[in-house]
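Note to self: keep these together.
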Amino acid sequence: MIRFDERGSASIEAAIVGPAVVLLILLVVFGGRVALAHQTVQAIAADAARAASLARSHTDARHAAEAAANAGFDQQLPCANHTLDLDLAGFDKPAGTPASVSATVTCHIASGDLGLPGLPELAITSTMSSPVDTYRERR
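Structure:
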């Protein structure tokens, strides 16, 4: 009966399996970051749209939406850079007509700190809308 020496096989297995496990863990962390960023960008867009819909004029709506979006980014999500685009056409409709405003928020998430080669900077975008009070005065 021939017996093979199995010394060192655990080291070889660890050298092969170890990096694969670390890569899998980093990919799970990356996926969690992306999911959390999508949820946060959506919440910031909803906050900005709601703040804009409560204003009385285009100018007030723009300032309120920018303030809400900036507060959300400062408190919840670190972005490399972010943009806010508003559709305030609802303020142009006469009182008594249903109208809404919408906010589109884009956040660029850097992923280089995970140490995984080839991960790009992600641009996460969300658009939310909020109704303007039908019978409120609009300017």
